[in-house]
Design brief:
The protein has 8 helices and 6 strands. It is elongated. With 391 residues, it is α+β, with helices and mostly antiparallel strands. The N terminus is likely disordered. Strands 1-6-2-3-4-5 form a 6-stranded antiparallel sheet.
Length: 391
């Protein structure tokens, strides 16, 4: 009997090696894909240096300061518009009452006409008690006709005035809405800038924060050295002015009498003395605020922003300043940094977003930024835009 042929398939070396080949192929494909992705993917942004972080944070605070001035301006405009709208609405209510009075007068005349309109003059004479009574009644009706004409004129006048008042109130309400929207936008901008600054700082490690603090100390030291140099220059100028004053006294008072010179040592004579008196009040107020927190949009008494502090300080001396740095820089007279006197306002940055009160010796009192308190600091800590003497 012939042997039956085997139905088993012979082992295939190719089949045996196929799993390994498949795995290798897949792995290679994966490597190729990763390589392709790595080659085409955008490289991750390098971590900013501490110097870059410090610059970015300072810039964000400056932008927040500028947005704070926008907020202050919008807040002031909103308050003015609200007062204007309230006044217009009050006037409109009074106009409406006058219009109602004119309407009631016309109604009374119309009712009187209705009651007497159906009676002819002949009938009125016949029904009158006497000719004299008829005459009196006719005179009365003539006077009522004149009054009625005046009432119609008054009604038309009041109606036109009321319509104008309503139109003005509507326009002012629309303007108020715009001011409120600007206020919300400015507020959101400030909050966004401050949040970005906090986020940047929160990502720093302890070592990076220490390095950032070192950079800040170096910046403060440089500003302090410049202030000390200005203090020496001011002291020299005062000494020179005093020497000149004494020399003039000796020349004008024979025999060595002390004379009656009135120089103040500031080089500004009587005007300087008047200004110095006001400045003393300004500085006394400002010094009493040292240690209070900066809060954007605040005008005291428990917290201030930069222009809120300068406004409140000069108000203590009887001088009303505008609310924003942009408007405060326009008051009084401009002065050079070399000619600064205590009480002068020093403005910073090209966008005039910060201001401080000069106290002499190259220093100022100011409300710096969120997270900091009112303090004394060198005017050279920030780039100076310019200075003014408010009064």
């Amino acid at each position: 009997m012939p042997a039956l042929a085997s139905h088993r398939k012979p082992r295939s070396r190719t089949a045996k090696s196929s799993p390994a080949v498949g795995f290798t192929t897949a792995a290679l494909a994966g490597v190729t894909l990763l390589s392709t992705q790595s080659a085409t993917a955008a490289p991750s942004d390098p971590k900013p240096s501490i110097e870059e972080v410090q610059k970015k944070v300072d810039d964000l605070y400056r932008q927040a300061g500028s947005a704070t001035q926008e907020f202050n301006k919008a807040k002031e405009a909103t308050a003015e518009k609200r007062a204007e709208v309230d006044q217009l609405l009050d006037d409109a209510a009074k106009r409406t009452e006058k219009l109602n009075e004119s309407r009631r007068a016309l109604g009374n005349y119309a009712a009187a006409q209705y009651r007497t309109g159906a009676v002819t003059p002949t009938a009125a004479l016949m029904f009158a008690d006497s000719p004299q009574a008829y005459f009196d009644q006719t005179q009365l009706m003539d006077r009522m006709t004149d009054q009625q004409r005046r009432a119609v004129t008054e009604y038309e006048t009041e109606r036109a005035a009321a319509a104008k008042q309503r139109a003005e109130a509507t326009k002012s309400l629309e303007s108020l809405t715009d001011s409120q929207e600007s206020l919300r936008t400015s507020k959101q901008t400030v909050q966004t800038k401050l949040a970005e600054a906090r986020t940047l700082l929160s990502k720093l490690t302890a070592e990076e924060k220490a390095r950032l603090a070192a950079i800040e100390r170096k910046k403060e030291e440089e500003a302090r050295r410049k202030a000390e140099a200005k203090a020496k220059a001011e002291a020299a100028a005062r000494a020179e002015a005093e020497a000149e004053r004494q020399r003039q006294e000796r020349e004008t008072t024979p025999g060595g009498d002390t004379g009656t010179g009135t120089g103040t040592g500031t080089g500004t004579g009587t005007d300087g003395g008047t200004y110095a008196a006001k400045a003393d009040k300004v500085l006394a107020f400002a010094r009493n605020q040292i240690g209070k927190p900066y809060v954007w949009g605040a005008t005291g008494p428990s917290s201030f922003d930069c222009s809120g502090l300068t406004q409140a300080a000069w108000k203590a001396a009887g001088v009303d300043l505008p609310r924003t740095t942009w408007d405060q820089v326009k008051v009084g007279s401009r002065v050079e940094t070399a000619d600064l006197l205590p009480g002068d306002l020093v403005f910073f940055y090209d966008d005039i977003s910060h201001v401080g009160i000069y106290i002499g010796d190259g220093k100022m009192i100011h409300a710096p930024k969120p997270g900091a308190n009112v303090r004394e600091e060198s005017i050279y800590y920030m780039p100076i835009y310019g200075s003014v003497r408010p009064a």
